[in-house]
Fold this protein.
Amino acid sequence: MSLSIAIKSFLHLELSNEELMGRYVQSGDAALLARLYDNCANDLYHYLLTHSDPEMAGEIAQRAWLRVMEKRHLYHSNGQFKAWLFTLARNLLMDEYRRIKRQPLMESTDLTGTSTGYQGDIQLAFNQALATLPFLQREAFVLQQEGFGLQDIAAITGDSQEAIKSRLRYAKNHLRQQLGDHSEE
Amino acid sequence: MPKTIYANSLEITVKNDPSLDALYNKRKQSVKAPASTRSFILAKAKSTQVRASFNLWNWTLGVSLCTALLVLFQYVGLSHRQIQPQYNVIQVHRLYEESQPLELARQAAQQTRIQHADNYARYMQSQQVLATHHKLNAELVETANGWGLQTCDRELVLLTTQLVDQLRNHHRLEQQLKKGDQVEIAFDAQGRILTIKPTSKLNC
């Protein structure tokens, strides 16, 4: 594997996140971390922002990347780097919620009859509908949108695949309901 | 960058909604990670990298110092051994050992030849000496100074203790001889007694 990475690097071919991380684990080269950051930072920040406020999202994202640097020796080469990164970030987010004694997982959102009402800006309606989703449903939806499969989402959240499947179904139904017929336009 | 779909996402039974996907992607495009975070993380990574290379330098320096010390000890040990005289002795000893067997063999062969020739000459001489010149019959008597041989001519030949011992050592004197025995005395050309043997031919 290292030979193929070396050849790709020599030919300036694009390396996958896993290959970049594999090389970063060995060398600690900051340039490799920069490439990983550029590939994943926006996705991670968006995930965190969807589940917290901008200040906390920035703080947790920064801590997650620092943890990538510190714990890089714990990264397994056969795993997806992005899933590992999101797992680190989610754990930090949960720790932070525990620290400030807020329990977003227990916060209930009454989804019945809370249509945001489409008023011309469907994107705004989508953002509002997403914000009204319960934490776990929102999380499952966002992670699926980030390209993770059921198995990955279950691993990141620590829940069963059946639970994830159920959350995804509820989340999408709610979003469609909130957006109504306008989402078809 | 296009969204990456991982292989196991095929397991998802909940179908993706294209309109929701599009709305989600549009939302994501409006969200960018803070630039300050990138700067901070990369600065941290570079400082760690510098520290790692510094540690590597220290490690290299340590290994170099150890190697230098090892070489120094080797050199000192070698010099110490070189000034010891045993080396010269050992080398000379080896050369001696290598040449000694041939030299010794030559010397031994020479010595053997000399001894053999000497022994042969002595043997020949003894053969001549043993050639009896004349014989005389006598009776063995005991005197105050030891044994004596009394001939028919009333001559008494005294045998010194040394002569008796020599004759016995050379088996030229019968062991069982005693006083009164009649013996035959063999003389050489110089009149020296060669053997004394018992006989019954004494007729005086």
Notes: Chain B is about 55% helix and 15% strand.
